[in-house]
Write a structure and sequence with these properties.
7-stranded mixed β-sheet; 23 strands
Length: 586
């Protein structure tokens, strides 16, 4: 009986297997027939192609419906060429084809806003020009336009303090309209009396109401009253009392969006994380981006950050950050909360150890317990931390907060990062902590280097922004330009790349800076491409030339993988493609 049963089962199995074999043949034949009828790609590109996938270089790729459908050798790509349908581009010998780049932290929204409704200074402008030409011109412009605030940026953070203008001197030029002029970094400000009065720092009769501000400094003059100088969070507090809806209306923001996009695409960026999207204390930048995206005019992926300052109510700020998720789309990623751990090491406000010469310490804005709690709350809401931190002691505090309060999958990020203690590199890697580094700052003129030797703490005098150490420890490091806080550096990817390789900005003719931390060409391109995509949670869609991803790529007029290293900064983006379509030049 058992033997008969087995024969019956075997017979049925044979019939079943035969049926599935025939069915499989039918399905495969149908798939092949379908593929045969759809092999025609929209675009096929030949050339030297750096993919940002494990430093791989290939000969060709094919694009269909905005995505890569083939990446490999030229022969394989030829199968995707359909006469009369496929555009074929042979870039062989003309330069390099590579993924489009990303900027992991910058302030294009602020930069263009200043140009629209404010005043942009040059680092070369001295105090005399500031007082006799720049401020009077800004006041004249404000009176002609009916502005209720005068805003500007760009004064030299090292030279101006040697002869710092006072509020009384600014009052002599304009006393009835609030003035706020930020320095080149945006971390310090100069104001007149009415700006301080409006913010409740003092009364019009000179009575002082507040001499201290958490996370910042209110400069006090010899007469015991505020002198008009502000640093760090004291500056952001005063700015919150300006007429920000006028300075940055939706119309201004929308007009600026097209200018921002034009600059990004011309330089080869199609991924950009805005480092201070609520700089004017409203969500008009978000609204402008949404309008642009819905109109089909957005040709880059925008990440946004909501600001939390040390004088704000934490829970209210987190709620506002969460509310911005309503603007989310394929091209808009409102995922980040931005805050300042400290200031800048070069200006003496970084949170460092050992202390600055003379025993001075920088300005820490948050305790470790507070930062841990903020991280826990933000991550619970699906919001990633995006923290400005420079000094090594500040870095250690932020890393502790991320480790103890954060979720590794949230990719909490440190921005700028001047100093890092060796043990913190491994902890960053172990907890998926990201870093967006200003590789373009890895240089200094001989004169600036000499000056920094006098003001920096021991151990940081001939060192600055680590780069190679992140790669050595497996930390995802992306590149950022921090525009418009350029410190005289280039904003484009290839100027940045050259600095990361040589430790010097060639036009300065200075000695290289901290050569032990220089990168290889492939590492620099990785930081500019796929690592930015990882920081922005879009590495499965963008950031490298890989089958199934969006076809975001560049044609570069020079092979930056092999040309003389001192010529990399001369490379230009010949064309930028976004989702398979050329978006620069149009």
């Amino acid at each position: 009986m058992k033997q008969k049963t087995n024969k019956v089962i075997y017979s049925r199995m044979k019939k079943t297997l035969s049926f599935f074999a025939v069915l499989s043949v039918i399905i495969v034949t149908g798939m092949l027939a379908g593929c045969k009828g759809n092999t025609g790609a929209d675009l096929v590109v030949y050339g030297k192609i750096f993919t940002s996938e494990n430093n791989q270089v290939v000969e060709a790729f094919a694009v269909k419906d905005g995505k890569y459908v083939y990446v490999g050798d030229k022969k394989g790509a030829e199968a995707f060429v359909e006469e009369g349908k496929t555009e074929v581009m042979d870039y062989t010998g003309k330069g390099l084809v590579m993924p489009s780049c990303g900027n992991g932290h910058a302030h294009y929204s602020l930069g263009y806003a200043i140009q629209s409704v404010g005043t942009v200074m040059s680092m070369e402008d001295d105090v005399n020009k500031f007082m006799t030409e720049i401020v009077p011109a800004a006041v004249k412009k404000a009176r002609e336009t009916g502005a209720k605030s005068i805003f500007g940026q760009g004064w030299n953070m090292i030279e101006f303090p040697k002869n710092l203008p006072t509020r009384q001197q600014l009052d002599a030029i304009c006393s009835d309209i609030p003035i706020y002029f930020a320095d080149e970094e945006g971390h310090k400000g100069l104001v007149n009396t009415i700006a301080l009065v409006n913010a409740g720092i003092m009364k019009a009769d000179g009575t002082v109401l507040k001499k201290e501000m958490r996370g910042g400094e209110i400069g006090i003059g010899p007469d015991g009253t505020p002198n008009g100088f502000l640093s760090e969070q004291a500056g952001t507090y005063i700015r919150s009392f300006l007429d920000n809806d006028y300075l940055f209306s939706v119309d201004v923001a929308r007009d600026n969006m097209s200018k921002i996009q034009e600059q990004l695409l011309s330089e080869g960026y199609t991924m950009y994380l805005d480092g201070y999207s609520s700089y004017f204390f409203n969500d008009n930048f978000y609204k402008a981006a949404e309008q642009m995206d819905k109109a089909g005019d957005m040709h880059f992926v925008l990440g946004t950050t909501w600001e939390l300052d040390s004088w704000m109510d934490v829970d209210k700020a987190l709620a506002k950050a969460g509310d911005t998720k309503k603007y989310a789309s394929d091209h808009i990623k409102p995922n980040w909360l931005k805050l300042f751990m400290d200031g800048t090491v070069e200006s003496g406000t970084g949170f460092v150890e050992p202390l600055y010469p003379g025993g001075k310490q920088g300005i820490p804005n948050w305790s470790e317990e507070e930062l841990t709690d903020i991280t826990r709350k933000a991550n619970a809401k699906g919001i990633t931390m995006h923290v400005h931190v420079m000094g090594n002691k500040g870095v250690n505090r932020v890393v502790n907060a991320y480790v103890n309060g954060g979720k590794d999958e949230m990719r909490n990020t440190l921005i700028h990062v001047y100093g890092v203690d060796s043990a913190d590199f491994k902890r960053m890697a172990d907890h998926n902590i990201q870093v967006s580094e200003g590789m373009l700052w890895h240089h200094a003129t001989n004169e600036l280097q000499a000056e920094l030797m006098q003001i920096l703490p021991e151990g940081m005098k001939d060192k600055g922004y680590p780069m190679k150490s992140y790669f050595d420890h497996g930390v995802n490091m992306s590149s950022h330009s921090d525009f418009p806080a350029l410190s005289g550096s280039p904003d484009d990817p290839f100027g940045i790349m050259e600095i990361a390789l040589t430790g010097v900005y060639q036009p300065e003719h200075a000695k290289p800076w901290w050569m032990e931390e220089l990168l290889t060409r492939e590492q620099a391109l990785t930081a500019l491409t796929i690592n930015v995509a990882k920081q922005m949670f879009i590495e499965n869609e963008r950031g490298s030339i890989s089958t199934g991803k969006y076809a975001d790529f560049l044609l570069v007029d020079k092979d930056v993988l092999t040309c003389p290293v001192t010529e990399i900064h001369t490379a230009k983006t010949a064309a930028t493609y976004f989702e398979g379509k050329k978006v620069y030049p149009m």
